[in-house]
Amino acid sequence: MILLTGGAGYIGSHIAVELLEMGVEVAIVDNLCNSNRSVIERIESIAQRPVVFYEGDIRDAALLASIFEMCPIEAVIHCAGLKAVGESVTMPLAYYDTNVYGSICLCQAMQKANVKKLIFSSSATVYGPDAEVPYLESMPRGVATSPYGVSKGMVEKVLEDLGASDPDWSIVVLRYFNPIGAHPTGLIGESPQGTPNNLMPFISQVAAGVLSKVMIFGNDYPTSDGTCVRDYLHVVDLAVGHRASLRVLDSPGMHYYNLGTGCGTSVLNMVQSFIEVTGVDIPYQFAPRREGDLAAFWANVSKAEHELAWRAEKTLNDMLSDTWRWQQYAIVHGH
Ligand code: NAD
Ligand code: WQD
Q1: pLDDT in tens, 198-223
Q2: CA distance linking residue 247 with residue 249, whole number of Å
Q3: Helix-strand-coil split of the chain, %, nearest 5
Q4: Is 148 a catalytic residue?
Q5: What ligand 1 atom has the least distance to the C-alpha of 125?
Q6: Residues with CB under 6 A from ligand 2
Q7: For position 26, which CATH number holds?
Q8: In 3-state terms, what secondary structure has residue 198?
Q9: What are phi and psi of 257, to 5 degrees?
Q10: Is the model's pTM score more than 0.85?
Q11: Is 7 within the bounds of a domain?
Q12: CA atoms of 233 and 313, how far apart (whole Å)
């Protein structure tokens, strides 16, 4: 059985489906601070298999100890955390508390239970603003520009020190690029609370008529059309990447992988492609640059391809049409 922290969230729910569909038992712990209990039922309805769900906090040592006592956990996939970059600037303590202290609490509970296999949700943001593109796992971590980004780098360092202290640990650090899209059933996807900060949910809420237009932050970057370039990958491909990473947990030590497509797409291209794929008009306007944004970055994905035999398979069209299918379901069902 795998313990999945944050499994009711956007990425975690897709990982849960993948694991269940490959026949793995899953226990989820999530405090639902950025998700909804009904996600658990929707995971079960897609996979047609039950999930063990604990509503609670990863910083609750007693809860974690009881989960390890009650469930035959062999490995942990750790997705729980706070992820809004802007909010982390105004609430740094909350971010370090949940992301760093929460990860330490989890590792302490794992150590006590003698479960030493961990996959951690990290981020491309750990490469920092000065890294050369495409990003390679062998590059050093940079100084991330937000408390959120710093918290991810701090957890990576904690895990490295833990791994160095005890050779029995096997730790996979997955550095996600820009996950978008939703499950093709349209039953699970990203549901940001309030106005979205990220591009994809913003575009889809404009398409749904919830928001009036997309503001494109900056059109004077040194890129082909002047707008920022990112490596967007389908959340189902990302979830499959976790499934592929499970094999690596049989080898003790630290393992780092970029999970992206290896290709960059500009903001303008995203908006125009969404219009083409869905047939829905998206009014947009150029606006000043957003503070802290980098012009362009994408992943070098050779390591994941060779060592995990994993490659993102879905196209940009899949990402956009699946997002739109989910957005329409979410509006109708109030998610
Ligand atoms: P999400 O907010 O949808 O999911 C996170 C889940 O963790 C939520 O269900 C939330 O309720 C839960 N959670 C938060 N604090 C908790 C706590 N203290 N105890 C228990 N549960 C808690 O976010 P997501 O997009 O699914 O991201 C999952 C992970 O991937 C995060 O660690 C995030 O930093 C990382 N990540 C996300 C992205 C992205 O663009 N979405 C990119 C890189 C890395
Ligand atoms: C993408 C592009 C914006 C909104 C963030 C985190 C990163 C990772 C993924 C967790 C940028 C532009 C956006 C809008 C716009 N998360 N944009 N108008 O900033 O690449 O990455 O999410 O680890 O750490 O920083 O993603 O979706 O916010 O922005 O023009 O209304 O879209 O300027 O160029 P970002 P994003």
Answers
A1: 999 999 999 999 999 999 999 999 99
A2: 5
A3: 45, 20, 40
A4: yes
A5: 43
A6: 83, 85, 123, 125, 149, 178, 197-199, 202, 214-217, 228, 230, 267, 290, 293
A7: 3.40.50.720
A8: coil
A9: -140, 135
A10: yes
A11: yes
A12: 9
